[in-house]
Amino acid sequence: MKDKKINTKDLVLKIEKIAKNRIASQPVVSLDEFRVVKNKLEPKCLLIIEDDETMRAAMKRIFDGDSFVLKMASDATELSKVLDDTPIDLILLDVGLPWINGFELATLLKEHRDLKQIPLVFVSAQASEQDMKRAFEIGASDYIKKPFEVSQLKKTINTLLELNS
Questions:
Q1: What is the pLDDT at residue 14?
Q2: Model pTM above 0.85
Q3: Does the N-terminal or the C-terminal CB of the chain have fewer CB atoms within 10 Å?
């Protein structure tokens, strides 16, 4: 009897099919439990653009346990390292970036054919009424002032991801 060999893609598809069928046969679960399972099977990709190393590390800790794929950049010059074939589902962006500030970068991102529809959330200590107005004029989905409540940040991100899917 010959050993049947399957490629990695087929293996992943088979595993996902079995898991989805078994999940579907389970009793009704809460929406939060469903999201956790869905995120494990189909993780969302967050692009975090933050120049402060401590804040980048904090963001990594905040989202690591939530089955997100994280792409991190300290400024606009590092985007070429993280923009690859993996689709981005949401962008978190600081305003006070070196070289090209967050408003300028957001404007460029919103002009890009593949990135303009992605929800963009400013997360910044600069949070005057004028800053917020400018962010929404550019096309931001939300503006969160630092320091922020982790639960509120997660809730905002999950809501935007649900609305955009």
A1: 82
A2: no
A3: N
